[in-house]
Design brief:
With about 210 residues, the protein is α/β, with parallel strands linked by helices. The protein has helices at about 15-25, 40-45, 65-75, 90-95, 110-120, 130-135, 150-160, 165-175, 180-190, 195-205, and strands spanning about 5-10, 30-35, 50-55, 80-85, 100-105, 125.
C-alpha cells in the first residue's frame, strides 16, 4: 500500500517532533519533512510535493494562512490546518485560501490520523468544536447569503449541510436518494462557485465566500 506523504509545519519544536514520531510509527504515513514556518515549508515542497500538509496558523516569517494559499495555487499538497485558534475569521480565511480541513490541537493522535486520511481521500473536514461555534452563533442564513440564487430544494439541502448532516442523513430527512443529494450538491457548488461543502456551510452561516 502506498503511504500518505506528509510534511509538518509548526513553529513549536515540541509539536513538530511529537507529530513526527506519532505519524512515523504508523505504516500508513511517510513524513518527508518538517518546517518551522510557511516559507520553509514552501522551500521543501518546491522539490518534494506531498499528499497532505499539516499546517499551523500563527508562525513567524510566513503564517499558515498565507502559506496555504501558495501551496494550493502551486498544487503542492492538500492542507490540513492544525491550530489552537478557532476564530471564525481565521477559519474562513483558511478555507477561502484552499485548506481542505481545519482541526483544533486538542484531539487524540488517532483523530489526527483519521483527518489526514479523510483529506487524502478527498473528504473535507471541519473540527466539530469549530463547526458548533459557527452554528451556535448563527443558525439562520446570514443576510449576505443570496437565497434567491437557489431553488427551494437547494436551500433545504444547503441548510442541512450547514447543520452538519451527511449525505445519507440529508437523503433521509428530505426523502430522496443519496445519489440525488450528491447531484444537488454538485449543482449548488457550481452555482456558488465554491469547491466543497464546508465552504458552502460557512457561506450560508457567515455570508462570506
Amino acid at each position: 500500500m502506498e503511504k500518505i506523504k506528509i510534511i509538518i509545519v509548526d513553529d513549536s519544536d515540541f509539536i513538530r517532533e511529537g507529530m513526527h514520531i506519532i505519524l512515523s510509527v504508523d505504516d500508513e504515513f511517510d513524513v518527508i519533512g518538517t518546517a518551522s514556518n510557511g516559507k520553509e515549508a514552501l522551500s521543501i515542497l518546491q522539490h518534494q510535493p506531498v499528499d497532505v500538509v499539516v499546517m499551523d496558523i500563527q508562525m513567524p516569517v510566513m503564517d499558515g494562512i498565507e502559506a496555504t494559499k501558495e501551496i494550493v495555487e502551486k498544487e503542492l499538497g492538500k492542507v490540513l490546518i492544525l491550530t489552537t485558534f478557532d476564530d471564525n475569521e481565521l477559519v474562513e480565511k483558511a478555507i477561502k485560501n484552499g485548506a481542505k480541513g481545519y482541526l483544533i490541537k486538542n484531539h487524540t493522535p488517532e483523530k489526527l490520523k483519521q483527518m489526514i486520511k479523510a483529506i487524502y481521500h478527498g473528504v473535507n473536514v471541519l473540527d466539530e468544536l469549530v463547526f458548533e461555534k459557527i452554528t451556535s452563533q448563527q443558525l439562520q442564513a446570514n443576510a449576505s447569503f443570496d437565497a434567491s440564487f437557489y431553488t427551494t430544494r437547494e436551500i433545504d439541502i444547503i441548510k442541512a449541510i450547514a447543520e452538519g448532516l451527511s449525505n445519507k442523513q440529508i437523503a433521509e430527512k428530505l426523502f430522496i436518494s443519496e445519489g440525488t443529494v450528491k447531484n444537488y450538491i454538485s449543482v449548488i457548488l457550481d452555482k456558488s462557485q465554491l469547491a466543497h461543502r464546508t465552504q458552502l456551510a460557512i457561506y450560508y452561516l457567515t455570508g462570506k465566500k
